[in-house]
Amino acid sequence: MLPLLSLLALAPPALAQAPAPSARDRADLQRVEAYLNGLTTLRARFIQIAQNGATAQGTALIWRPGRMRFDYDPPEPLLLIANAGQFLHYDKELRQPSIVPVGSTPLGILLRDRITLSGDVTVSAVQREQGLLRVTLYRTENPAEGRITLVFAQEPMELRQWLVVDGQGRTTRVTLSAIETGLRLNRAAFDFNDPRFMANPVDNN
């Protein structure tokens, strides 16, 4: 079984003070902000790779602000849902849920109503290579909660991957493919009052 909670990175190592961004960095960060704030719904296939090489795949849904869902393909019995300010990690085999606040995880930055990559969010690195833009960030007042690196295609800009680092320096990588945006999603797909819900998370009506 994959260490799913490491994807949320609850207690990473201390972070060095971030350098001041260059003019080019600031321009790229403005593009990232505009892209993320313009993103409402997203559906994609994902592949998750843990530090130990364990892999899993499934379908990811994002409905900004506030909602996210990861359905893992069998044999992984896992379900991850964000809604109402909480992340639910549910093991279907054990029928055991665990819940943490969205605001206590670096992944929660993606789900904010308005994403601003300054102030209470610190950008620690901006890197460019082979048409990709990598932005590493963490919550300014709570760096111990984790850091996340978002990876974007630059032309056109599109979220392709993220990496989260846990307290032991282990990295969990999530790569997206077959990305669709602007979909009409079923609100019930993000309701975790009953973990048995959701036959069809996309509403095509």
Automatic annotation (TrEMBL):
SUPFAM superfamilies: Prokaryotic lipoproteins and lipoprotein localization factors (SSF89392). Pfam families: LolA. Residues 1-16 form the signal peptide. Transmembrane segments: none annotated. It comes from the Bacteria. Keywords: Lipoprotein, Signal. This is Outer membrane lipoprotein-sorting protein. It comes from Muricoccus pecuniae.
